[in-house]
Amino acid sequence: MDTSYPREDYLPMTSHKQHHSSTVITIGSSVVPRDHLIWSVFNTIYMNFCCLGFVALAYSIKARDQKVAGDVEAARRFSSKAKCYNILAMVWSLLLPVLLVALAVTGVIHFTKLVQESMNFFNYEIITIEDDKK
User: Fold this and answer.
1) What is the pLDDT of residues 47-69, one digit of tens each?
2) pTM to 2 decimals?
3) Which end of the chain offers a freer environment for a tag, N or C, measured as fewer CB atoms within 10 Å?
4) Of 30, 46, 122, which is closest to residue 86 (Cα–Cα)?
C-alpha cells in the first residue's frame, strides 16, 4: 500500500482557462468641489468689514452654478475663492472685537493713571496754598 501524499493520479483537474480582467485607471479626481454656500450666507448675515461675506456668497453661487453646469474645474476655482473670502471674513469678524476690547482696556488703564496723576497734582497744589495762608 502506497501512503505517499499527494498522489499525482488523484489530483483534481484544474482548469487552464485564463480570466481576463480589465483595469480602469482614473486620472484626476472625480470629487465634486464644495461651494461653501452656508458659510458664505452666515458671513453675509454677520455684516463684516468690507462686505467680504457678500463677495464670498457671490463666488459660492458661481461655484454652485458651475457645478450644476458640469464644469468641475471652474467650480473648483470659484469654490477656492469663496473659501478664501470666507476665511478672511471670519478672521476679521473675530479679530475686530478682540482688538476693540484690547484698545478699550488699555484706554481705561491709561485714563485711570492720568486721573490718578491729576488728582495727585491738584492735591499737592491745594496743600501748598493752604500752608502759605497760615
Assistant:
1) 777 889 999 999 999 999 999 99
2) 0.59
3) N
4) 46
